[in-house]
Design goal:
globular; 2 domains; four-stranded antiparallel β-sheet; binds adenosine-5'-diphosphate; alpha/beta
Length: 255
Amino acid sequence: EKIDGAVLDVADLSKSFGCNQALRSASLHAEPGRVTALIGPNGSGKTTMLNMICGFYTADAGTIAVGGTQTQRFASHRVAREGVARTFQTPNIPENVTVLEAVAAGRYMTDRASMLATFLRLPSYRRTARNDVAEAERVLEAVGMAHLRDEIATSLPLGMRRMLEVARAVVARPRVVLLDEIASGMDENELVRLSTLIRALRDAGATVLLVEHNFRLVLSLADSIVVLAQGQVIAEGPPEEIEKHPRVLSEYLGI
Ligand code: ADP
């Protein structure tokens, strides 16, 4: 099944918090069917960039376009309606729902009202539930978590909760998916499954933007890498160029 991926174009984005300039005219371009990684040291502005793309913060200057639609002034639910889904560093899973319910509800990540209906079990939820459950079962199978479907989602260890976040984003069939530090806390098996899932999303046609500390994972997954330092893009290119870039080696990897 194909996903109708959308080009993500961020141009000259700036954002300050008081006198702290988190982003200084930063630009990035992410394409459907490709994994674009955003890397950089702590405090370089990666999370701020994601928060602005998904409409949590508004830009001081610059533009954001999703499939040609300018979204920089959209509230987060309108950005979601353009097909942008994201995961959170702290998994954002509601209390007292099962793994299956949590993943099925991800279907509504692009529409907050329906997501609420899901958890309140309103009639709109019951109407659509059967399809959603089938889709959620398929995704859980793919991430090797089918046997955990009836567990309480928040009771899982961190690595699995992160995987669940990704599964929730996948069932939404997002045009653009923003993955924020999903690999931390995962063991080797989980990392392999995670990589498989991200490649499947990409190959289905989604635009994947990955913020990730694990440089080895970035090198193995990314088609293109953007490096931020102090709110500015200092390098961008394919992994084989970035891994040799002198400023990346010195500033980012400390070599
Ligand atoms: P990264 O994700 O690369 O670690 P962040 O985007 O979290 O970097 O942070 C970039 C800078 O912006 C940091 O100096 C951080 O302290 C600041 N910052 C981020 N979010 C806020 C906020 N909500 N309020 C104030 N300062 C913030």
